[in-house]
Amino acid sequence: MTDNIKNLAKVYGEEIELLPQDLYIPPDALEVYLDSFEGPLDLLIYLIRKNNIDILDIPMANLTNQYINYVEKMQVIKFELAADYLLMSAMLIEIKSRMLLPKPILEDDEDDPRAELVKKLIEYELMKDASENLKNMPQVGKNIMIAQSYFERVTQIEYPDVSVDELFDAWKNVLRRVKQFEQHQISRSELSVREHMTIILRKLNEKDLLEFSSFFDTDKEPIPKLVVCFLAILELTKEGLIKINQQSSSSPIYLQLGEI
Amino acid sequence: MAQIEKIKEILEVALLTSSQPISVEDLGRLFIDKTDRSTIRMLLDEIKNDWQDKSLNLIQVASGYRFQAKSDFTEFLMRLAPDRAPNYSKAVMEVLAIIAYRQPVTRGDIEKIRGVSLSSNTLRQLIEREWIDIIGQKEVPGRPSLYATTKHFLNDFALKSLSELPELNSSLTAELSNTDENDIAQSSNNAVDSNIIVDEKDFSNNIIPPAK
Amino acid sequence: MAQIEKIKEILEVALLTSSQPISVEDLGRLFIDKTDRSTIRMLLDEIKNDWQDKSLNLIQVASGYRFQAKSDFTEFLMRLAPDRAPNYSKAVMEVLAIIAYRQPVTRGDIEKIRGVSLSSNTLRQLIEREWIDIIGQKEVPGRPSLYATTKHFLNDFALKSLSELPELNSSLTAELSNTDENDIAQSSNNAVDSNIIVDEKDFSNNIIPPAK
After folding, report:
1. Helices (DSSP H) in A78-145: which residue ranges?
2. Exposed, middle or buried by CB within 10 Å (0-12, 13-18, 19+), for B68?
3. B74 phi and psi, to 5 degrees?
4. How far apart are CA B67 and CA B52, in angstroms?
């Protein structure tokens, strides 16, 4: 199923040839436009403004056709985009059919089935327009520069206090959010491996080249610690942070930072 | 040097060395002897005039006064620090606009206006930038959080208050009032009304606590 | 304004708006047209003279030039600077936690875990506090810096080693997996499983039973 869709996307060049004539987006630009719409309302506004349609008197049949054609193309190219867009298709079709129904003479516009959609469209366009304005305003950190000359502080700056508990809470927060929980499941053992990774990198930063055996003090260190240190070296190698070298089978093994 | 000249000089150097705007109240804390606000305001006006033709301007933003480079210098200064602030996506800027103009709003309100669901990332980026924060819960089922812009947002956009935001596109608002019902027009009026309350409540927590 | 006067003014405003000293080389980058260093040095001397009797002095430090308030003003300015810095933001604490538990990590790793881009300010605060530092570069395109916690960090948190950092116990693991989807809960079980071997050997008195 997904393969099918991907294949269609691959023959994308040909797909474009099949675009209906009343779709006003130039075929070549389709891919560019695809990501540039923020949602169904954005797409509708584009179609309306592009076609110089009076937003207060939208020709529903025409707009619905264009919209649906466009969404069909999007589905072919980028399937996951479709959900919000499909809901809008349904809404447009409903409005269109309500307008086709024979109806009593309207006393005022209040019964116009398009009214709610139109209000939504205008409200969104207002905000879209406002966001452009905001983006173009001068901003601190971008193009407003603030005078911030130096002055010498007499007393030492006091820093905020942080407890281990607060740090742990922050970590739990991160874990709660992380999707790949697996990768961030931490146990003591993994931590001590990570600590050793840091220790080894620090040593190698001071001296470019260190003998493998120099990391293992077999007399003093307990065996678990040696194991952890060894795991840290393997992990560092796996991540490409260090390199292990040996000239010949009997010569000493050296560790160095993963350069070269 | 006359006493008043000395005070003026201290005000000037405080503003030149602070990366944050300083309120008139905080400027008063520079001096042990009580210096009244009207004097400080008068001296700030003088400083503003002194710098009129120079490279920096003394301007007033939501939380106080600051010196900032005149815009003619921006193109040069940006060469020194080309990638200072992150460039936000279209989605982030739209959400910011909705919160700025329609505050206080819930996540649901934002989703309704944009017609798409909102990733929590988007709100988080704005909260992290300290441009928006949560100012309460709406008393509806689920008690969704209400978002509003902060004083920091006004400072960063060099605004004194929300009323200085660029006006909404007038031809669109005209179209809106031409639609049959007045719902939207009304609800936007409501939003403006409720802003007044938010201004007072929300912004109080951004005041620098007095040094002990 | 004469070209040279304009250059001088740009130099002046660049120095006034920078919180860091700027080197002569960097100052040269302000201008598209090559401006030679001797000209810049000469203008810096002039600026120094211009400000001689004012509240700020242009001074030279190791990494370049900066404007600095004259020491007479320090006592006043200190009254404005709050005694105690405000608490670290949630972002700073989360970044510290990620570095502590996942070190060594790159900025990209941190951004991936948190799902938002990281302002360089966040890392700077932690480096300034000497809780983290850069211990190398990752050998991938761009050679990003690798961050790790320092000895100073362990001291400040009264830890003998990182292994003393609190860890998730099984009830919390369960709680977390309840809040997440099922597949996540499962994968966390796997993760615990794969760690058991080391757990037993390394910290035999601290064995964590796999959640569930």
Report:
1. 82-100, 115-136
2. buried
3. -55, -45
4. 11
Full pLDDT tens readout for chain A, 260 residues: 333 333 333 333 444 333 444 445 555 555 556 567 888 999 899 889 888 888 888 899 999 998 988 888 777 776 666 677 888 998 999 998 888 877 665 555 556 788 889 999 999 999 999 999 999 888 887 778 888 887 776 655 567 778 888 888 888 888 877 755 554 455 566 677 888 888 888 888 888 888 888 888 777 777 778 888 888 888 888 888 888 888 877 788 888 887 64
Report residue A1 as tokens. Answer: 């199923």
Other C-beta atoms closer than 10 Å to the C-beta of C156 total: 16
Q: Which of C13, C140, C165 sits opposite A191 (nearest CB)?
A: C165
Which ipTM value was assigned to this complex? 0.64
* Sign of the CA dihedral running B99, B100, B103, B104: positive
- With beta carbons under 8 A apart, name residues in chain A contacting C19: 148, 150
Q: Which amino acid is at C191?
A: A
C-alpha A77/C-alpha A8 separation (Å) is 7
Distance from B184 to chain A by nearest Cα, in Å?
7
From the CA of C197, how many Å to the nearest CA of chain B? 37
CA C15 to chain centre: 23
Q: Specify the residue for token string 């999707």.
A: A179
